[in-house]
Design goal:
Layout (H helix, E strand, L loop, with lengths): L2 H19 L1 H18 L1 H4 L31 H37 L1 H16 L2 H12 L3 H27 L3 H8 L4 H9 L4 H25 L10 H6 L1 H4 L6 H28 L18
Helix pairs in contact: 2-4, 2-13, 4-5, 4-7, 4-10, 4-13, 5-7, 6-7, 7-10, 8-9, 10-13
């Protein structure tokens, strides 16, 4: 189809702009890509089993055999950080996908139909965002109990309500355009207008919202695991590693705190830098006054 080559050109141009204009965004993309590769291939990369115990290596410092050292039970820290990356990948991508889909559905309905439906939905959103997000999440997790699936669903479903306002604003900005009025004039149903005319034109803010939310979701999962409401042991989670053995034995083995904290910091930093870069690239308001690859345009 004729639209596919154009979409490929736009994608290639966006990648080139990311590399040439946004070096920090490129670094973030590399970090996020590394997280995906490590999380996907953890079974092949990890040198030991996830919960393989060696009593003779308890609290052993970094060495040639255990490059990041071992924890208080003799488990290889490098292996557990790798498997922790898999947990972060699952939670980050899964929960963010759920929240973005939820925000898109709510925002499309609220922005397109307006009137009483919009008022009712937005008053609910107002009431929801008045409560501290962590308080709501902790309450729900205390009821449901810890676990990967529970964390994924709770973070996904609670995170999309506030984000619906971004989609709603974009929909309200374009729903009065000529092509929407023309679709109404020829008898197109509301479902068709939403799916074929509005949704494709609000994809840019949706993509930005997705990329920016990944880091926050990973950090929230780490906070839940640190507080004991997230991933249940012995499944490794970076937040849980900081809370359990890391906090208890941090003076005897500081590497128990350093390496999980470093991994968490790098991934959240990379996700945030990539999200900011994607926002700048997709926002047409940020292109004025600067050439495509950072060269100042000369006024004619």
């Amino acid at each position: 189809m004729a639209g596919e080559p154009k979409q490929r050109r736009l994608l290639a141009e966006s990648v080139i702009r990311l590399i040439k204009e946004k070096p920090l965004g490129t670094v973030g993309a590399v970090i996020v890509l590394a997280l995906l590769v490590v999380g996907t291939c953890a079974d092949f990369i990890a040198p030991y089993g996830m919960n393989e115990i060696s009593l003779t290596a308890r609290l052993s410092p970094p060495s040639a055999e255990h490059i990041l050292g071992c924890d208080n039970l003799g488990r290889d820290l490098f292996t557990r950080i790798i498997y922790g990356a898999r947990v972060s990948m699952y939670i980050g991508l899964g929960a963010t996908t759920i929240s973005v889909v939820e925000a898109t559905i709510i925002g499309l309905i609220s922005g397109f139909f307006g009137g009483k439906a919009d008022i009712m939905i937005q008053r609910f959103v107002d009431a929801w965002i008045c409560f501290p997000g962590l308080f709501i999440i902790l309450t729900v997790m205390a009821i449901l109990g810890g676990g990967t699936l529970q964390v994924l669903l709770v973070l996904g479903l609670t995170g999309g309500i506030g984000g619906s306002r971004i989609v709603r604003s974009a929909v309200m900005a374009i729903k009065e355009n000529t092509y929407v009025e023309a679709a109404r004039a020829i008898g197109a149903s509301n479902t068709r207008i939403l799916a074929q005319h509005l949704l494709p034109n609000v994809l840019a803010p949706i993509i930005v919202m997705f990329s920016i939310s990944i880091g926050g979701v990973i950090l929230t999962e780490a906070a839940l695991s640190f507080l004991g409401f997230g991933i249940n042991p012995p499944t490794p989670s970076w937040g849980g590693m900081l809370s359990g053995a890391g906090r208890r034995y941090m003076l005897l083995g500081p590497w128990l705190m350093v390496w999980p904290g470093t991994a968490l910091t790098l991934v959240v930093y990379g996700a945030n830098m990539l999200g900011d870069a994607i926002r700048d690239i997709l926002d047409p308001r940020l292109r004025g006054g600067i050439g495509r690859y950072g060269e100042v345009r000369q006024s004619s």
